[in-house]
From TrEMBL:
Name by which UniProt lists this protein: Small ribosomal subunit biogenesis GTPase RsgA
Residue intervals of the CP-type G domain: 98-259
Cofactor detail note: Binds 1 zinc ion per subunit.
GO biological processes: ribosomal small subunit biogenesis
Binding residues annotated for Zn(2+), in chain numbering: 282, 287, 289, 295
Annotated EngC GTPase domain residues: 112-257
Length: 358
């Protein structure tokens, strides 16, 4: 009997749609129920279902791979019972992925099925252009829409100057100057965020305070920052998904110490779109934008139309991304070799056993 989508219990407030319901047909037939992962711990996750929130077990992939391990924001198929178990993950339509903090060749998924990425940076400290470019590459690569939020305007000397600097680094991205203390532009931010919103940024940027303001309650832990460098303690220790009062959901994340890129070529092209456009006018298709004649990128730098720092930053991030891709290719190659060795070893053992039979 076909399943009819009604969502009587309000799972849609977490992002469930009729389109998702259609993809769930085979899971319904197998007796499974839809759930959204709000939090993940070691071997356990908190899942939101039509029956409410519950803890569920899941089997870690072998070999370990963070890209297919459950993550906050994932939609999943859950088998209910005395011990609920996560049976399958639904395909992700977007995911924020960085290189693993362990520096392995795997990527680490920070959040899945995201619509809006709020990049929070504190106006109490000078703008770090390189950090902003990294965070933007991460956001654009995910498939979500980035929004730059410059927090703590009440502590800034010249917030509009920083606003102009951030806008120059992020064409096509909304940039807001905000203050939780005064409420400045919080209503504008609330109108911009949609669907599933993730807060990204370094510790001390005021992400949790911003989240509490959007939630309308002191739900997220906050802490103080050091005056000398503006860094805060990691008051957010895990990712968690929380419904917003005006619709949609919010995912707060721990402050990012490292923002290493992982397979972010498209994101880099988006962040450095002006360099990509200029490169199309270079005389040589493989121009390295160094000393080649007819280089449109170098001509723009000489004319003061492009900052040399932008090209340096682009090159650095491209090298880092290529290095991460090469490590991933090497790991996949090794895994194929190891699988083939295991198959060959099994076949040899089978032949030896057969030959030993009378």
């Amino acid at each position: 009997m076909p399943h009819t989508y009604t969502d009587p219990s309000g799972l849609s407030r977490y992002g469930w749609t009729g389109a998702l319901d259609q993809t769930f047909t085979e899971h319904y037939e197998a007796g499974l129920v839809p759930a959204r992962i709000s939090r993940v711990d070691r071997g356990l996750c908190t899942a939101i279902t039509t029956s409410g929130s519950m803890r569920a077990t899941f089997a870690a992939p072998h070999p370990p791979d963070p890209l297919v391990t459950p993550c906050t924001g994932d939609w999943a198929a859950l088998r209910l019972g005395a011990e609920p178990h996560l049976a399958a993950l639904l395909p992700r339509r977007s995911a924020i992925v960085r290189s693993s903090a362990s520096r392995s060749s795997h990527g680490q998924v920070l959040a899945a099925n995201v619509d809006t990425v709020v990049i929070a940076l504190s106006l109490a400290m000078p703008l770090d252009a390189a950090k902003l470019e990294r965070l933007l590459a991460l956001a654009w690569e995910s498939g979500a829409q980035p929004v730059i939020v410059l927090t703590k305007a009440d502590l800034a000397h010249d917030p509009e100057a920083v606003h102009a600097e951030a806008e120059a680094l992020a064409p096509g991205v909304d940039v807001l100057v905000t203050s939780v203390a005064t409420g400045h532009n919080i209503d504008v931010l609330a109108a911009l965020v949609r669907g599933t919103t993730v807060l990204l940024g370094p510790s001390g940027a005021g992400k949790s305070s911003l989240g509490n303001t959007l939630l309308g309650e002191e739900r997220l832990a906050t802490g103080t920052v050091r005056a000398q460098d503006g860094k805060g303690r990691h008051t957010t220790v895990r990712r968690e998904l929380i419904p917003l009062p005006g619709g949609g959901v919010l995912i707060d994340t721990p402050g990012l110490r490292g923002i290493s890129l992982h397979d972010a070529a498209d994101g880099l092209e988006q962040v450095f779109a002006e360099i990509e456009r200029l490169a199309r006018d270079c005389r040589f298709g493989d121009c390295a934008h160094d000393t080649e004649p007819g280089c449109a990128v170098q001509a723009a730098i000489d004319a003061g139309e492009l900052a040399g720092r932008r090209l340096d930053s682009y090159r650095k991030l491209q090298r880092e991304n290529a290095w991460a891709a090469a490590r991933t290719d090497a790991r996949l190659r090794d895994e194929r070799v190891n699988r083939q060795k295991a198959i060959t070893s099994h076949l040899r053992a089978t032949y030896r056993f057969r030959d030993q039979q009378p």
